[in-house]
Amino acid sequence: MERTATLTSDYFSWKAEVALPTGLGGHHRLWHAYFDDRTPRHLLAGFVTALVDPAPVSRGHYDVPHSHLVRQVERGAQGDQLAAAHEARLKASRSAARQARRSAAPTTRPPAGRASEAATAAARSR
Fold first, then answer.
1. What is the pLDDT of residue 89?
2. Of 17, 52, 18, nearest to 35 (Cα)?
C-alpha cells in the first residue's frame, strides 16, 4: 500500500499492489487497485478491512493462481457426498408429491350451487 498526498491541497491517492518476484530481479504484478480523494471513505475502509482480514478466502479447487504458494484444504461435503445428498432430497421430494396425490381423494358430489340445485329439482319433477 502506498499513499500519495500533496502539501498544498487535500488531494490524496492510494495504490495497493500485489506482485511476485520473477526470479530475474523483477516482479510480476498479480493485481492492483487505485483510490483517490473522490473514493467514498466507506469503500476505502471496506477494502482495507478485507485486505487485512486473516480469515482464509474460499475458492474453488484449482482456482488459485500460483497454487504452489498456498495450501488448499477441502471443507464440507465433497463429490460422492454431495451427489448422495442431492439424490436423497430428490427421493424425499418425489415421496412427498406421491403422498400429496394420495391424500387428495377425488369427490363424487357435484359442486353446490344454483345450477346443480336446478338440475336436481328438474330430475325430481320427472
1. 93
2. 17
Backbone Cα Rg of the chain? 34
Q: What is the mean pLDDT of the chain?
A: 80
DSSP string, the chain: -EEEE-SSSS-EEEEEEEEEE-SSS-EEEEEEEEEETTS-HHHHHHHHHHHH--SPPP--TT--TTGGGS-----S--HHHHHHHHHHHHHHHHHHHHHHHHHSPPP-SPPPSHHHHHHHHHHHH-
The predicted model gives 57-79 an average pLDDT of 73
pLDDT tens string 31-56? 899 998 888 989 989 998 998 999 87
Give the C-alpha separation, 51 to 4, whole Å: 19
Closest CA to 33 of 45, 53, 47, 54: 47
Identity of residue 76: G
